[in-house]
Amino acid sequence: MKQIEVQQKVLKRHQDIAQHLRGRFDKASLLAINIMGSPGCGKTALLEVTAKELANRYRTLVLEGDLQTDNDAKRVRAVGLKALQINTNQACHLDALMVERALADSKVNLDDFDLLVIENVGNLVCPAGFPLGEHCRIVLCSVPEGFDKPAKYPRMFYKADCVLLNKIDLLDVLDFDKDAFWQFVKQVAPKAARFEISCKTGQGTDAWLDWLNQQRTNLLGK
Amino acid sequence: MKQIEVQQKVLKRHQDIAQHLRGRFDKASLLAINIMGSPGCGKTALLEVTAKELANRYRTLVLEGDLQTDNDAKRVRAVGLKALQINTNQACHLDALMVERALADSKVNLDDFDLLVIENVGNLVCPAGFPLGEHCRIVLCSVPEGFDKPAKYPRMFYKADCVLLNKIDLLDVLDFDKDAFWQFVKQVAPKAARFEISCKTGQGTDAWLDWLNQQRTNLLGK
Q1: Of chain A's two ends, which shows fewer C-beta atoms within 10 Å, N or C?
Q2: Would B204 be classed as within a structural domain?
Q3: Residue A149 domain-assigned?
Q4: Which of A116, A66, A111 is nearest to A87 (CA)?
């Protein structure tokens, strides 16, 4: 019982901080998105392949979450986006406190940005339970992971606003039942937007960027 | 502080149960291995492609860990191995208590088996912290995940007895720096055995099975 009580207190604290962050993002008219998915599904690659369009459309800030290394922040900076690295060490997900501290430490002014992309730790389970104040939750899957992942890891998909299927350039090489994959997604997250992309070829990323633009328009219209 | 104390108590309890399980495995001369890796890296496929050899060599029991569904247990049973499914619901890893309960509920007699394969929840972070009484920790990576994963997720590799690189049939299609991958592995887990395999073609699985056989011989020689 004591364990449950302590966990609930910790979760409540994270939710409070996330709510506070959301207020700050709203005040700055900053669209915040939380990109989640397995290790190697292509979260950083999605930023790389769309960097030019993102930079043209938005003053973009990226928060890179990883246990170790600043590999991903370096990759994102190399394509011209401003990026902050958060190393979680042992932690399997980002939490709102880490985001709040990273923003404070970097002394960025949120008013200077239109879009905040939070790339979570590669993990198809744990990040689902930790809100970061984001407006949109993006779940990125990839063809090599197999088509049954939404059924096996439903918690990650329940609250998704958008599900992206990446590495569709490998559909000819791999045995992936695309119809079954989307059927699973519809069962778990019927309202989520759905896009097929290849971060290698760029295929499908225009539709994703249009959806993102719509989210920002919605935010500004509030 | 209270949170840390409670966490330590919980971890200690899991360690005690793991130690108890290990004693039971030893007594039954049962080699127990814990296979860990990202979602879709090929943990179940490894069992499928080696099922015939495993069945020929050992009386094999498989414990399948997943948040939801019994897809993996069904796949393993379809190739003739005895499998028990553990659904963790929200939990991002198996723990020793879940293993103990699954064995108790199924009423299996450990003396009836030579090899216990525990397939953990697809997650490259959390399972690392939870011993299950296993003799060997196997980390399964796959080419599409990218070559830098041992550097970015070192905790999973620290205590690995064996690292397998799966999906090498995709090396021609994908941009994967194999030398850098193994260099990272050697830095984090210098003593781990290393094998390259394809669960699609069967390539490299003989060497893996030989290594497994050696572990069982070592156990029986103790």
Answers
A1: N
A2: no
A3: yes
A4: A66
- Decide: B121 and B63 in contact? Cβ < 8 Å: no
Predicted TM-score of the model (pTM): 0.94
Contacts of A142 in chain B (CB under 8 A): 40, 144
Residue B169: inside a domain: no
By C-alpha distance, the chain B residue nearest A125 is B92
Evaluate whether residue B104 is within a structural domain: yes
Residue A117 near residue A62 (C-beta atoms within 8 A): yes
- The secondary structure of B105-124, three-state, reads HHCCCHHHCCEEEEECCCCC
Cα separation, A73 vs A66, in Å, equals 10
Element (H, E) at B142: strand B136-142
**CATH code for the domain in which residue B84 is found:** 3.40.50.300
Q: How far is B145 from chain A (nearest CA, A)?
A: 4
Is A66 close to B123, i.e. CB distance below 8 A? no
In chain B, the residue whose alpha carbon lies closest to the alpha carbon of A41 is: B145
- The tokens describing B24, both together, are 């039971």
**Distance between CA atoms of residues A96 and A158, nearest Å:** 20
Q: Decide if A167 touches B, using CB distance below 8 A.
A: yes
Instruction: Inform me whether the pLDDT recorded for A19 exceeds 80.
Output: yes
Would you say the ipTM is above 0.85? yes
A67: contact with B, CB 8 A cutoff = yes
Condensed to tens digits (0 to 9), the pLDDT of residues A83-127 reads: 999 999 989 999 999 999 999 999 999 999 999 999 999 999 999
Residue A95 domain boundaries: 2-215
What's the number of domains chain B is made of? 1
Q: How many CA atoms lie within 13 A of B82 on its CB side?
A: 14
Beta strand extents in A132-212 (DSSP E only): 136-142, 162-166, 193-196
* Structure tokens given for A11: 């979760």
